[in-house]
Design a protein that fits this description.
Rossmann fold
Length: 297
C-alpha cells in the first residue's frame, strides 16, 4: 500500500517546481509540464520515489543503524528538529560542521568535550575555577550544544543521510558522496538528481511540502524501530523458553540420576539382606548337622 496519494501531495504543494529559467535539464524525467513559467513536478513519480525512500529508511531503522537528517534552511530546520527528535535519530539544523563525515573522529572529540564539561559541573570542579573561566567554559558548552548537541548519540558514521535541499546542503552532499554513504533527498527542479541515490522529486521550499515528506520518512523509521523491538522481544522469549527447556531437561536428568542412585542403593541393601538371610540359614543347617552327628554317637 502506498504511503501517500496524489491528493495529499497536491494539497501540500509538493508539485510546484522552480521557474523554467532556473531548471536543471537532468530533472526533465520528473517534470510533468510548465505552467505560467513554472515547472510542475510529476506527482505520480514522486509517489513511487517516496515509497522507495521510505522502504530504505525502514530497513535501516530495523537493522538498528542511524539515519542523519540535514536541513539548515530557515523553513525546514524547526520541522526536521521536531519530527526527527521523536524517532531518536541524529539531525543537523544549524550550520553544517565542515568535515563532519570526512573528519568524523575530530567531531567525536568535540562531542566528548561536551561530556567532560558536564562532568566538571557535577563533580565540583567548577567550584575550583575562577568566575571568568567558568563563564568561558559555559559559553563553549552552549556553542557545542547548539552545533553538535543533536548528534551527540552518533557514535559512528550514519548508514544514510536525508537532505531537504541539496543545493543548500552542498557540503553534506559532497562528503556523503565521497564516503559512499547512501543519500536520500528532496530534489527540486533546479537541482542535479545524479548526486542523489534516492531522489524524491518535490518542492523543497514550501513548509507544507517539507513537513509532509519529512513526516512520511519519520513514520517509516518508527515502523522499522518498532519491528526491531518486536523481533528482539520475540528472540528474548524464545531464548527464555529455550533456557527453561534446557533447565527442565537438566532437572529431569538430575532426578533420573538421583532415582537411579536410590534404586542402586536399595538393590544393594536388598542383596545384603538376602546374603545375611542365606548366611543365617547356612549357620542353622550346620548346627543341625552337628547335632545329628552327636546324636548318632
Amino acid at each position: 500500500m502506498p504511503r501517500t496519494n496524489f491528493e495529499q501531495l497536491l494539497e501540500a504543494g509538493v508539485h510546484f517546481g522552480h521557474l523554467k529559467r532556473k531548471w536543471n535539464p537532468k530533472m526533465a524525467p520528473y517534470i510533468f509540464m510548465e505552467k505560467n513559467g513554472i515547472h510542475i513536478i510529476d506527482l505520480h513519480k514522486t509517489i513511487v520515489k517516496i515509497d522507495e525512500a521510505a522502504s530504505v529508511l525502514k530497513q535501516i531503522a530495523k537493522s538498528g543503524r542511524k539515519v542523519l537528517f540535514v536541513a539548515t534552511k530557515k523553513q525546514a530546520k524547526d520541522i526536521v528538529a521536531e519530527n526527527v527528535a521523536k524517532t531518536g535519530m541524529p539531525y543537523v539544523t544549524e550550520r553544517w560542521p565542515g568535515g563532519m563525515l570526512t573528519n568524523f573522529p575530530t567531531i567525536r572529540k568535540a562531542v566528548k568535550k561536551m561530556s567532560q564539561i558536564d562532568r566538571m559541573s557535577t563533580d565540583g570542579t567548577f567550584n575550583n575555577l575562577s568566575k571568568r573561566e567558568r563563564l568561558q567554559i559555559t559559553r563553549q558548552r552552549a556553542k557545542l550544544e547548539k552545533n553538535l548537541g543533536s548528534i551527540a548519540d552518533l557514535s559512528r558514521l550514519p548508514a544514510a543521510i536525508f537532505v531537504v535541499d541539496i543545493q543548500k546542503e552542498a557540503n553534506a552532499v559532497r562528503e556523503a558522496n565521497r564516503l559512499n554513504i547512501p543519500l536520500i533527498a528532496m530534489v527540486d527542479t533546479c537541482c542535479d538528481p545524479t548526486l542523489v541515490d534516492f531522489v524524491i522529486p518535490a518542492n523543497d521550499d514550501a513548509t507544507k511540502s517539507i513537513a509532509y515528506i519529512v513526516e512520511v520518512m519519520c513514520n517509516a523509521i518508527q515502523e522499522g524501530t518498532e519491528e526491531r523491538k518486536l523481533e528482539k522481544d520475540k528472540e528474548e522469549k524464545e531464548d527464555s523458553a529455550k533456557s527453561e527447556g534446557e533447565e527442565g531437561r537438566e532437572k529431569n536428568t538430575r532426578l533420573r540420576a538421583r532415582k537411579s542412585k536410590t534404586e542402586k542403593v536399595a538393590a544393594a541393601k536388598k542383596e545384603e539382606t538376602a546374603a545375611k538371610k542365606e548366611g543365617a540359614k547356612g549357620a542353622e543347617t550346620e548346627v543341625e548337622v552337628v547335632a545329628e552327628a552327636k546324636a548318632e554317637e
